[in-house]
Amino acid sequence: MKRIRRGWALTKKSWALLNSHRELVRFPLYGGIATIILGLVFLGPGAFALDQHTYGVGVPLVVIGIYVLSVVGIYFSVGLAACADRIFRGESATVGDGIAVANSRIGAICGWAALSTAIAVVIGALENQGGALGDIAGRLVGAAWSLVTFLSVPVIAIEGTGPFATLKRSAALFRERWGQQITGNIAIGGVVFLLGFLPGVALIVVGVVIWPSVGFAGAVLIVIGALAICVALLVSKSLSGIFGVALYRYATDGEVVGGFTQEDLESAVRPKRGAKLPGATPGTV
Questions:
Q1: pTM given for the model
Q2: Alpha carbon distance 7, 240 (integer Å)
């Protein structure tokens, strides 16, 4: 129950900022649209070529596709983080402001995407070609990567560092401040899952079941369910981006922003033994 209450509190406070600046949803929306289009362009043909055992064509297309989609995802996430940071500092922020920051960081974004793609390829190779041990190793590498890069997007958006400096900075913040997984985004995602994603799935299931007997009504439920899932994903991405910037500010400056309290931000992490957040006492989740 404690984790549920914490997740609900973090979600409400992230939502309060998003609700007052709804244009922030446009970042994951634009990113999602671009991802679908570019995925069809690169990953579709790549997957088909691999299915036909044309590896000389399929593998490059898939790798390029993963890289391009990574650039797109990071680009719009950086724009969102930049806007959230401006709002937290009491400044006005528009989508154009976020895009301007993302454009100014394009070199860092492309470099970070290249590094992320290389790690993704290594993880995929371990899981697909290494048998049971490779699968375990891939999962361990993936988990470690997600931890040390947790604050990478705010670092790029706010500090403008290159790929290796971003990795070093994000890993240093994590190593110095926390010892285990940062759970705030997981808590937020869990609440959105319960309130948005799960009902959407239920509507789709009901629509599929009743479609043979009441056709149109079943189709309507499927469409509504799909839209609910899309909205839930957009909201979850936006809320997580907002929370990530708040956590970055707290980790670097000891600054509590965005309506969050010190307790909120402390409860979202699991500090390592002996570590102390600025102006805070270590806590556990």
A1: 0.76
A2: 12
Token code pair at residue 42: 């690169």
Q: What is the crossing angle of helices 106-129 and 131-148, to 10°?
A: 160
Amino acid at 243: F
DSSP string, 219-238: HHHHHHHHHHHHHHHHHHHH
> Is-contact 187 268, C-beta < 8 A?
yes
Token reading at 133: 């041990």
Is 46 within 8 Å of 115 (Cβ atoms)? no
Tokens of 198: 């799960």
Encode 138-161: b = buried (16+ Cβ within 10 Å), e = exposed.
beeebeebebbbbbbbbbbbbeeb
Q: Tell me the angle at which helices 2-20 and 184-192 cross, rounded to the nearest 10 degrees.
A: 80
Per-block average pLDDT, block size 10, for the chain (285 residues)? 65 80 87 87 88 88 90 92 91 93 96 92 81 82 80 92 93 69 60 77 89 80 82 77 84 80 67 42 29
- For 205, what's the count of Cα atoms within 13 Å in the CB-facing half-sphere? 6
Tell me which residue has tokens 């240093």: 172
